[in-house]
Amino acid sequence: MNPHIKDILNQLVVSVLKGVSRLPFPVMYGLSDFMSLVLQYVVKYRKTVILNNLRNAFPDKSEAEIKQIVRKFYVHFCDITLETAKAWSMTAHDFEKRMELSGIEEVNRLGDQGISIIALGMHFNNWEWSAYMQKYLKHKCLVVYNPVRNNDRLEKFLTEMRERWGADTIAVHKSARALMNFHQQEHPVFLGLVGDQRPPVITKFWTTFLNQEACFNSGPEKIARRTNLPVFLVVPEKLKRGHYRMHYVPLMMSPAEMSHEDIMLTYVRAMEKYIREAPEYYLWSHKRWKQKRPEDHPLYL
C-alpha cells in the first residue's frame, strides 16, 4: 500500500476513535450492542478461534453453555473496545463514578516505605481503565506495553491515553535494561506487566493454562527474582456495564525465596481462578494456544 494512503487511513482510524470517545455513554453502549451483533453474526470475527478456545478450556460445559459465553463475550469485547477509546476523553469525574478500588491500602503502605512493587495483569475485563489509578497510588506507574504494528498514529493515541493521568509507558522491546533497574529510582515504582499474551517466540516455561498447554514469557519471573519486590495481581471486576472495581491482590512478598517455576505457576493459577469465575470477560479471540510445546521442553504443573 502507498505510504501516503496508509497514513491517511491510519489517521482516519484515530479520528473515528476520538469521535467515539466523545459519545455519551448510553449512545456508546447502543453502538456496542449493534457492533456485537455484526461481529458475531455477520462478520463472524474470529468465531472459530473463540469457540475452539472455549471448548478446549471448558470441556465440561455443554455446547449451549459455550454458546452463551460466546454471546456474552462479543458484547463485552465491543464494550471494552469502545471503553478504551472513551478513556481518551473521560474526565476525572467520569472515572470516579465508574471505578472502585480494593486492596490499594496495602500497595500504598509499601509506597510510603519507599518499596516498589511489580503488578501483573491479564487481558480480563477492562484493563485499560486501570491507568487512572495513578491518581491514587503513592508509586509512580511504569506500564510495559506491546506497540501497535504499522500504525504510528494509533500508537500515539493509545500512549497519550495511558499517560494522561501521570503514568509512564515503555515499549516491551525497549524495556530489558530499564525494567531490571526500575527499582533503583528514588521514587517507588509500580511496574505494570501483562503476561498472559502469547510470547513472540517459544519459551522454555510451559504449563497448562485453562486446560491447554501454553508457554509464558519468563520476564516477570526474572524481574521478580532479581529485585525481590512484592508482586501483586491486578484484577478488574465488572460490577455492571461500564462500572469496574480494581482489585490489588498480593501474590508473593519475597519472590527471591521462590523457584522460577513456583513464581510462574502462582501467577498462572491466580489468573485461571478469576477467568473461570467469569469466562465471558477474557480475551478468547486471541490465538493464545497456537504454539505447540517442543518435546524437549518440560511441562510444569
Structure description:
This protein is an alpha/beta fold and 301 residues long. It has one domain (3-300). It has 10 helices and 10 strands. The chain has helices spanning 3-21, 25-43, 47-57, 63-86, 92-98, 104-112, 152-163, 176-180, 219-227, 260-277; strands at 99-102, 117-121, 140-145, 168-171, 189-194, 206-209, 212-215, 231-240, 243-252, 299-300. It has a 7-stranded mixed β-sheet. β3, α7 (152-163) and β4 (168-171) form a beta-alpha-beta unit. The longest helix is centred in the first third of the chain and has 24 residues, at 63-86.
Q: Can I get a quick summary?
A:
With 301 residues, this protein is an alpha/beta fold. The chain is built from 10 helices and 10 strands.
